Amino acid sequence: MRASYGRIVFGVSALLFGVIGLLWHDADTWQNLPIWRLPFATIFAGCLAVAQIAAGIGMLFPRTARLASIVLGVVYGLFSLACIPGIIAAPRVYAQYGGFFEWFSLVCGAIAVYAATETDAARSATLGRVARLGLGLCAVSFTLAQIVYLRFTASLVPTWIPPNQMFWTILTTIAFALAAVAILINRQARLAMRLMTLMLALFGILVWIPALIAHPHEHGNWSEFALNFLITGAAWLVSDVIGR
User: Fold this and answer.
1) What is the pTM for the complete model shown?
2) DSSP letter string over 112-156?
3) In a 3-state reduction of DSSP, which class is residue 218?
């Protein structure tokens, strides 16, 4: 398997998220996942953090990338499933759905890495198709999240970028919607994912890095930064696998 910048971004971000989880044991760090309501929560959370660190390192090396993709797929699959009780309890609150699809996009990234290591061409193509369709559904969710929380999203846009915050919020919402359509119908899907990857990377650079510099002690900023680049890496990986 050739070197992949998407795999490096995904692996380093998983490593960072694991380190964040070990350093700070609170719901904000873990994106409000209901981990802390489980028996032996601290031990369980520590195991998940260590798994991400180990798999994040493994993702950086071709020989261990396949095993790392399985570990991260399981971890982020568990995170996705952990959102379902919240959806059932509050089906009208979109944040619950948004959280599910954020984590599920990472599962799609893990599937893409596994597909890239698959020697059977037909099986690799099937896994790549699953990853593409899954990421397409996630892009729909990203679109809806920005619509539902339009003003909050606008507040995250740096004020120094012309013409104004709402302009960029609406533009990126439209971009997510167009990307979702292209990915789901498989028309210029790879280009759509490449452009979405670039947009997500710019989110991290323009929004979360300044937030970290301004408020380095807020755990949520660190986890949002790591999650942003995890999703960026996942989109990059899926575009790579369908390009094969």
Assistant:
1) 0.93
2) HHHHHH-S-HHHHHHHHHHHHHHHHHHHHHHHHHHHHTHHHHHHH
3) coil
